[in-house]
Model the fold of this input.
Amino acid sequence: MAKETVVVVCPGRGTYNAPELGYLARHHAGSPWLAHFDAVRAAAGKPALTELDWAAKFDPAVHLRGDVAAPLIHACAFHDFLKLDRERFEVVAVTGNSMGWYTALACAGAVSGEHGFAIADAMGVNSQKHESGGQAVIVMAGEDWRVDPATARGVEAACAKVGVLPSIRLGGMLVVAGPEAALDALGRELPPLPRPPLRLAGHGPFHTPLMQASATAARASLPAAWFGAPQVPLIDGRGKVWRRFETDSTELWDYTFGHQILAAYDFTAAMTVALREFAPDRVVLLGPGETLGGAIGQVITALGWLDITTKSVFSLRQEEDPFLVAMGREAQRRIVAI
Amino acid sequence: MDAAQQVHEQFIAALDAGGLQRRSNLGLAAVGLTPQRAAALLHSQMVSRQLDRLSRKLQARGEGFYTIGSSGHEGNAALAEALRVDDVAFLHYRDAAFQIHRANRVPGENPMWDMLLSFTASAEDPISGGRHKVLGSKRLMIPPQTSTIASHLPKAVGAAFSIGIARRMGLEETVLAKDGVVLCSFGDASANHSTAVGALNTAAWAAFQGTPMPIVFLCEDNGIGISTRTPKGWIQANWSGRAGLHYIACDGCDLAEAWRGASEAVDYARRYRKPVFLHMRTVRLYGHAGNDVQQVYLSKEDIAADNARDPLLASAALLIEEEVMSAAEVREAYDAIEAQLLRQVELAIARPKLPDAASVMASIVPPKREGSARPLASADARAAIFADEAAAMEKPQHMARLISWGMADVLLQYPNAIVCGEDVGPKGGVYNATARLHARFGSARVINTLLDEQAILGLAIGAAHNGLLPLPEIQFLAYVHNAEDQIRGEAATLPFFSNGQITNPMVVRIAGLPYQKGFGGHFHNDNSLAVFRDIPGLVIAVPSCGREAVLMLRECVRLAHEEQRVVIFVEPIALYMTRDLHAEGDGLWTSVYEAPGVSEIRVGEIGVHGEGADLAVVTYGNGVYLSMQAQKLLAEQGVAVRVIDLRWIAPLAEEALLAAVAPCSRVLVVDECRETGSQSEALLALMAIKAPEKALGVLAATDSFIPLARAATHTLPSRDGIVAKALEMVRG
Done:
């Protein structure tokens, strides 16, 4: 029987929260990769992921910090990817959101598992090197997931006016970033929104030129030699597809530690290409968590993909036979996991 | 076996069994192509091939509507590699590989999905919205064209020419880059079209005298046009020694060779801003289109020889020998593309189609450009421009002079406007309607063209693609017929086939219509506008006097600039120098020039002269002049007539016209154009349907060509004829 085709999506920051505490323990205990990751961290004097994951209590001050959240999320996602049942599912493309790009590199085989972790771990630290600033989520979509084009235009105009930059295009949401003062000023300029902008604790002004120090540090410590060609098509944060024989590994390295850090990450474009150009039978969102599922659902409905044009149709389809399989959700995990 | 399947099986058998052969020993390193870029080119070529195969299967299922393929022409992908993605490309219909490859260089593109939407005529097809299977993409700088009759070559030349003049004009916000190169591709058979020959001649003519013309003409020579062989060596013999044209030949079936030719051609055109004729030898695999059985006119041996030249065989051989990919890896990639397409296609078929006539027609008229209105020129700027004619401007003048001043004001107000045509430069046009423009605005903006109407209109269309506002002039109405397809098949259709995304706004000024005294005969007095009337979306204006000509011209320019319309502005030659209406010296057909911003005549506004209710004369152009003469004579006989000047032949202002004739029980249509196919037919039909109670009469020119001398007006409505007809209608 022909395998089902899937596009794999690697989640970014903000997906390991209190409910995810113990995710590695629940799903990936005893993994040799996990032991390796912990050993690497131990050698660098950093606390083990297993310890952090097995902590008695979720501590936002610890678990949401970049140098902890990034390796934790990467480890969960990478392990989930390894748990995908390859006998039944063929991965036709891999993509990711924001920090999930580093995981995507590893899942697609553009970097080794070891280097993938080293990159994610290092970038968790590096991502704290930036000019002063932060990120905020602007929810443009209403309860029905539709985005009024006038609202979108109004948000873009408000951002431009106060000097806030688009950071991540995320379906019906726009993550913006900029200096603190600009983010403060933004609230006064925004058009009426379904809910007020939400500042993201512990997040820097990711995907903007304010991250130059992070990019510089990454380029200095994470060599191009680690990079190779992906074994399956890899869709980046512009919607560009990196294919096996066409990939210049230096260019991939340059994008990863250049444009990817310093310019807006267009997850909407990445998902659009994933759906239209790879037409998978399902989309698999790796754990931890499933918060990215909303953005994916919004892209699906905005495209009218599979005739899914509203949130309610999407939900109905999800109940019947999920097109979007979130491995961070137990019931759906069983569909695709070994 | 199906011919497409045969070629497909030949490819996979060669991959599986080995024995693939390169077409030359030219290696990747020798031509400066990296292994990765070569692999990317092969990928694009294989996607193009698999799409061709799928298009035929779709047609068989009744789900696809286009099977003219690119198989055998995939070497054109090399041009997409050599050019920048902001170099505009006017493509031949066999250039799918080019578009796919360019798309693959631009993040966020979905070339396979987009092509499938196009095959299945989905309303979501991103270029035409389901109106036609055309290659094209706004983001990829590929304006859509069918290219079937090589009618895209003149505008490609125009676009290339516009790059140079935009630089000289100092325009910064052009669509094309200052160092841009234009690509224009076509087949060996369509190289024989007059449009192709004319456009190549135009480019060479311009380049020969040092005019920048950065264009690559890509002639994809597969040696056959449907079933007619191109004589062996014909293309090379014709174009390799042409003055002003740099000729390069390459083998499009050999990837390294194709890249060598492509990069050399692009480099030459960009570096020297001169035209290149890139003669790329290709092969046409499995016939002209899906329904073409080439065994009828080609021998088995010929077909086998063609199949052996399949560029995929050679591309794969090259990459395998250079150890970029193994044969198995090529096969795997080829199969993966097919599988991917098969997943996509069922979803593409299900996407919505154009549901009704309104949806189809939605892009005939392009969207307005909000906020694009230009401010009027300052008083100082105007004073400087008109300093040497200030005294004359205070006196009443005839139409030709008023138009020349109107044109000057237009050029002043719209810095992106250009005037082009035969003799429009220092001579000021045959009738002085462009007098002094050259001296006032320079040769970059007032361009003397060669004697070729296709080239003039092509220049306008191409320049409009680059953000300029062209005001081309066709010297006489009869001459436009030489080039009418540039308006009918190209300019007017561009918004339609691009779903309103790409436009070529312009105002085409044409001196025309009859009644010239003692000059010309038919070709200078042609009296039919039928060639324009049936073209959807076109605006057709015919002024009747100098004052209104200026006001209408300004409105036409506004329509082009703000509403992206293609406008035909027909100036009645016989009225250019006319000064008097009723008696010698009365000066009633002259007026003092009005500066912009005082009065206006908007599209759809008709003119009504007099309030007479005995009879309404509905007319335009020379007919207004004659009817107003008749109006006076009729008034002397107690018949009160109103003369209604349509001004706008299209779109016809039906409601305004019906309101204007409402007080009159009789309507006489006076039409200086030949009665068959003329506007009088539409006017009578309108009246018959919308105002059936009215008595109708018509005086139209007879279906004749215009003779010389005194006989010149025998076939035309006359003042006295109008009087007689009016009296007949009013008094019975």
About this structure: Chain B touches chain A through 24 residues (CB under 8 Å).
